[in-house]
Amino acid sequence: MQCVDCVNEGARSVRQARTSAGAVLSNGRPVITQVMIALNVLAYVVTVVQSGSPMNNQRSGLFTATSMIPELTANGEWWRVFTSGFMHFGLIHLALNMAALFVVGPVVEQELGKLRYSAVYLLSLLGGSAAAFYFGTVCQQLAGASGAVFGLMGALLIVFKRQKRDISTILVVVGINLVSNLFTNASLLGHLGGFVIGGLLTLAMVRAPRQNRNAYQIGAVVAAVLLLGGMFALRATELDTAAELVLEYARTCGPN
């Protein structure tokens, strides 16, 4: 028999196995992935209730107020670059993104740990918004978790490459999804932006030296935030100097 304090003290003295990113290796539940899926589904349900349609839910007030419309975003409604990542155009759009998140998310979450995984997910989401906002036109309405999901695909690619595992399947899946953008209204820029940010951020995390690992990883996160913030600020300045043109685009194009 051993007292509880003795057992806990012994556990602290045993070196715990860690992943390449520094996370404690465990078989725990992918809590963050489950939370993100729940938030996306909840947001979809609210838009369906408001619009009265599971396929045309973009007509709901919540969707209109939270999806990313560049001219409104540039004029101060900056919450849209984040909230648009939880809106979806219909049930099929939601189902495809959540299926991918359900498959890819737990693997990446286990490798990175909850805190790092949350950073990669959210910055990939913002990376998708930033790419579409900076390089895209004002004649668009953007929504969906695709930027975050593609960011996790980029993260998984880096993780598998680091573990010397076969990455051909991931490349095929990413390639098919990118090509499909040419035949749908999905945002190719949003997907690419999320993929690049998720991949690069994960690469910085798994390649960080063991000494001062946390400092290097925090530095990578800060660098990503500054990069994305700069893209948003520069594009907003461009749109502000051409306000009349932006308003004209908004009047004539409307949301897609």
UniProtKB/TrEMBL annotation:
<keyword id="KW-0472">Membrane</keyword>
<dbReference type="InterPro" id="IPR035952">
    <property type="entry name" value="Rhomboid-like_sf"/>
</dbReference>
<feature type="transmembrane region" description="Helical">
    <location>
        <begin position="167"/>
        <end position="183"/>
    </location>
</feature>
<dbReference type="InterPro" id="IPR050925">
    <property type="entry name" value="Rhomboid_protease_S54"/>
</dbReference>
<feature type="transmembrane region" description="Helical">
    <location>
        <begin position="218"/>
        <end position="237"/>
    </location>
</feature>
<feature type="transmembrane region" description="Helical">
    <location>
        <begin position="142"/>
        <end position="160"/>
    </location>
</feature>
<keyword id="KW-0378">Hydrolase</keyword>
<keyword id="KW-1133">Transmembrane helix</keyword>
<feature type="transmembrane region" description="Helical">
    <location>
        <begin position="86"/>
        <end position="107"/>
    </location>
</feature>
<feature type="domain" description="Peptidase S54 rhomboid">
    <location>
        <begin position="76"/>
        <end position="206"/>
    </location>
</feature>
<dbReference type="GO" id="GO:0016020">
    <property type="term" value="C:membrane"/>
</dbReference>
<feature type="transmembrane region" description="Helical">
    <location>
        <begin position="119"/>
        <end position="136"/>
    </location>
</feature>
<comment type="similarity">
    <text>Belongs to the peptidase S54 family.</text>
</comment>
<keyword id="KW-0645">Protease</keyword>
<feature type="transmembrane region" description="Helical">
    <location>
        <begin position="189"/>
        <end position="206"/>
    </location>
</feature>
<dbReference type="GO" id="GO:0004252">
    <property type="term" value="F:serine-type endopeptidase activity"/>
</dbReference>
<dbReference type="InterPro" id="IPR022764">
    <property type="entry name" value="Peptidase_S54_rhomboid_dom"/>
</dbReference>
<dbReference type="GO" id="GO:0006508">
    <property type="term" value="P:proteolysis"/>
</dbReference>
<dbReference type="Pfam" id="PF01694">
    <property type="entry name" value="Rhomboid"/>
</dbReference>
<protein>
    <submittedName>
        <fullName>Membrane associated serine protease, rhomboid family</fullName>
    </submittedName>
</protein>
<keyword id="KW-0812">Transmembrane</keyword>
